[in-house]
Amino acid sequence: MEGKPKPALRKISIFNLVMISAAFIVSVRNLPMLAETGMKMIFFSVIAVLTFLIPTALVSAELATGWPKQGGVYAWVREAFGDRWGFLAIWLQWIQMVFGMVTVLSFVAGSLAYVINPALATNKWFIIAVILVIYWSATLFNMRGMKTSSLISTVCVNAGVFIPGALIIILGIVYLLKGSPVQFDMSLTLNNLVPKFKDINSIALMTGIVFIFSGIEASSAHANEVENPQRNFPKAILLTGLILVGINVIGAMSVAIVVPQNQISLASGLMEAFKHFFSQFNMKWLLPVMAIVTGLGAVGQVSTWILGPVKGLLSTAQNGDIPPLFSKLNKNKIPTTLLILQASLVSIIGILFFVAVPNINTAFIMVLNVTMILYLIMYILMFISAIKLRYSEPEVERAYKVPGGNPGMWLVAIVGILTSLLTIFVGFFPPAQLHIKNPTTYRLFISLSTIIMLTIPFIIYALRKPSWQKND
Q1: Which residues contact 69 (CB under 8 A, 6 or more apart)?
Q2: 326, 365, 363, 360: which is closest to 344 by C-alpha?
Q3: Which candidate, 228, 229, 304, places its Cα nearest to that of 26?
Q4: How many angstroms separate the CA atoms of 255 and 172, rounded?
Q5: ∠ CA(112), CA(115), CA(119), 5° rounding?
Q6: What is the spatial distance between Cα 254 and Cα 249, in angstroms, rounded to a whole number?
Q7: Angle at alpha carbon of residue 260, lines to 212 and 357, rounded to 5°
C-alpha cells in the first residue's frame, strides 16, 4: 500500500520573509555609530544596501536553494573549492561572531549602567564583568536546546529592538517639532551629505556601517519557502533594506540631535540620547526601564548568534576537519564542547581588549573592525564560490538564481567583492570622528588579530588526522 503523499511545503509571504530577515539584522545598538557620521549616514547607508546587502542576499539565496545542506557557507565554499577552503569560510563566520559578541555585550553593559550608575558606562571592569556574566549565562541557557534558545531570542528581540527603536524615533520627532536645539548640522548640502573621499579617515566608520547590513545570508535559507522566489525574494530583500535604512537613519538622527558628536559613546550613546530626551520631557523615571528593555534586545541577539555559526563548525567536526571531541552533543542535541570553547574565547578577547586599550570607544571600534574584516573575507569566499559553481555545477537546480545568467552573477558578485575589499582597506584606518591618538597601535592591533585568526584554521587543517574522520 502506498504511503500518504507528503504535505506540500507551506509557502511564506513576502511580508513574513521581510520580518524574518529584519529579525537577523535590525538592531538599535548601531545607532550611536551612525550618529557619529552626521548627515553622511544617509549616503553610507544607501551605499551599503546597494553594494553589499543586496549582492549578499541575492548570491546567498542562490547558494542556499541550490545546496540546502547543514553548514551554510561551509557547504557552499566546500562544494566549490574543497574541504580546506570550506573550513576557512566557516571558521571566519564563527570567529567573527566571537569578536562581534564583545561589541554587542559592550552595548548591553552601557545600557545596564543606566540602571545602576551611568558613570559605570565608561568603567572597563564593569563592562568586562557584564560580558562574562551575560555571555556565560546565555551559553548555559542555550545548552538546554533550541526551544529555550528560540524563546529567549524572540521575547528579547521583540521587546528590546522594536520598542526602543520606535520610542527614540518618536521622541526625536517631538523634540524637533518643539524647536529644541539640535546638536549637529542637518543641512541638505552636498558637503554635509557626501564624505570627502580624499581623506580616508573621514570614511573609516564605513567598516562598522557595512557591519550593520551584514548577516542577511542567514535568512537566505528561507528563499525556498517563498512563493515564486525568483520574483518575490528580491522584493523582500529590497523592502528589508528600506526598513533597515529607515529605522537606522531616523533613529541615528534622533541620537545625533541631542548628543553632541564629540560626546557620543559607541557603547552607551543610545542611553545618553534617552537620558537627554527624558530630561526634556520630565520622564527621567523611564530611563532605567528603557535601559533594561534595550539591554534585553541585545541579549536576545547574543542568544540568537550563540548557536548559529556553531552549527556550521559542528559540520566540520562531523566531517573530520577538527577533533571528534568538538562533535560531542548533549541530550538536547547541542554541541556543548564547542559552546564552552566559544564562551571562553569571548571572555578572553573581551578582557584583553578592554584591559589593553584605555579608551572605551577605541576598544569598541577596534574589536568591531577586526570582526568585520574577518566576516568580509568570508563573504569574498562566498561570492567567488557562487561564480565557480555557475560553471562547475550548472546542472544543480536552484529555486532562486541571480538574474541575468552568468553575466548577472559576475556583476552582482564583483560588486560585492569590490565593496568587501574597499571596506577591509578602510578598516585599517582609525575614524577621524573618534580622535584616536595612536593610529600605529590601532593598525597593529587590527593587523595582528586578523593575521592570527586567518592563520589558525590553516594550522588546524594541516594537523588533522585520519582518525578524526567518522566511518560511514
Answers
A1: 75
A2: 326
A3: 304
A4: 8
A5: 80
A6: 9
A7: 60
If you compute the radius of gyration of the chain from its CA atoms, what whole number of angstroms results?
A: 22
C-beta of residue 56 within 8 angstroms of C-beta of residue 381 = no
CA 158/CA 444 separation, integer angstroms: 39
The better pLDDT of the pair 79, 191 is held by 79
The CA distance from 379 to 17, in Å, is 22
For the segment 239-285, what is each residue's pLDDT rounded down to a tens digit? 887 888 888 889 889 888 988 877 777 667 788 888 888 888 888 88
Split at pLDDT 50, 70, 90, the class of 3 is: very low
What are 226's strand-pairing partners? 12
Q: Cell 568585520 identifies what position?
A: 372
Does pLDDT of 120 surpass 80?
A: yes
- Residues near 53 by beta carbon (within 8 Å), at least 6 away in sequence: 213, 216, 237, 240, 241, 244
- Closest of 344, 367, 345 to residue 427, by C-alpha: 367
CA atoms of 253 and 255, how far apart (whole Å): 5
Distances (CA, A) of 354 to 123, 276, 335, 364: 10, 27, 29, 8
- Whether 209 and 42 have beta carbons less than 8 Å apart is answered as no
Q: What does the pLDDT average to over 382-390?
A: 96
Report helix, strand or coil for 424.
Answer: helix
Domain with residues 14-464, CATH architecture:
Up-down Bundle (1.20)
pTM of model > 0.85: no
Confidence (pLDDT) at 259: 84
User: Which amino acid, one-letter code, is at 309?
Assistant: P
Give the type of residue at 427.
Answer: G
Of the candidates 317, 301, 304, the residue with the CA atom closest to the CA atom of residue 71: 317
- The residue among 390, 310, 336 whose CA lies nearest residue 97 is 310
Three-class secondary structure of residue 36 per DSSP: coil
- Give the DSSP letter of residue 320: T
